Amino acid sequence: MSRIQLLGMSQTELERFVVEELGEGKFRAKQIGQWLNRGADIDEMTNLSRSLRSRMSEMAVSNPVRILEAYKSKLDETEKFLYVLEDGNLIEGVVMRYHHGDTLCVSTQVGCRMGCAFCASTLEGRVRNLTVGEILGQVVAANRHIQAQDETRKIHNIVLMGSGEPLDNYDSVVTFLRRVNAPEGLNISLRNISLSTCGLVPKMRAFAKEGLPVTLSVSLHAPNDDIRRRIMPIANAYPMNELLDACRVYVAETGRRVVFEYALIRNVNCAMEHADELAARLRGLQCHVNLIPLNDVPERSLEAPSRQDVSAFLKRLEKRHISATVRREMGADIEGACGQLRRKVLQEGQTI
Ligand code: SAH
Question: What distance in Å separates the CA atoms of residue 193 and residue 195, rounded to the nearest whole number?
Answer without folding.
Answer: 7
